[in-house]
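The following block was generated as part of the benchmark described in Methods. Ligand: zinc ion.
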Amino acid sequence: MPELPEVETVRRGLQPVMEGARILRVETRRPDLRFPFPEHFAQRLAGHRIVSLGRRAKYLTAHIEDAPVLICHLGMSGSFRVEADDDAHAPGNFHHERPKAAAHDHVVFHLQQAQGGEARVIFNDPRRFGFMLFAENGIDEHPMLSGLGVEPTGNALDGKLLAELLRDRKSPLKAALLDQRLIAGLGNIYVSEALWRAGLLPTRPAGTIARRSSKAAQSSERLATAIRSVIADAIEAGGSSLRDYVQADGSLGYFQHSFSVYDREGAPCRTPGCTGHIKRIVQSGRSTFYCPVCQH
Ligand SMILES: [Zn+2]
């Protein structure tokens, strides 16, 4: 399942093609994905210019002139790819190799790019857990986005804010960090990674790093820094994969990670000087990986 860094990588990959482009037409090749497409979906987008492409948690947002904000979610297996015409004067005459899974190409945005050429942005989703919806009154009013917490990117999430969010919470630290109302878009993999970087046990009660002591303050500061850096590093890794994507089939967003604890059960801990081995436990039905020696 794509996590926030993948979604941000998709946004950055689509940005140069979509921002400033005019939507010529939209093809929906079935009536629904996870949800039915909004009424008059294609008609309401056709002819309008895309002003900007944003992201909130794991949702992509397209701000479009004289149209509602378009919200896209990749679900479990959704991906976008871009096909640009080398010869813009011969529309309809393409000799692209068809990708194997063309049967799962569900939505095609035909775009007139700001620079003049035409391009197609294609949404492919074999499992169809992805969706596209309109936020008629802006993203902050949309029921799926209105309750979301702070973004784990940027500087808003510091030790002080994290301590405020976790104060008096008795749930395990990992569960609290996965609560989207507190921090938006942080997923299972990156929570394990961030807790390892911060040297904090995923099982300890969340409120213990929000006590009014200097030790707790240091822990919350360390964790906030770890969350931001683990996400920033993954976005950077996604950026490197993006530079290669034109050589591949144009699919955006899935890239090879190297994780420090995730999926490394039994392997030696990578903390310098630590003799521990990574353990796997199940919390709320999902795997947690951590080092029992250097995480407290
Ligand atoms: Zn360790």
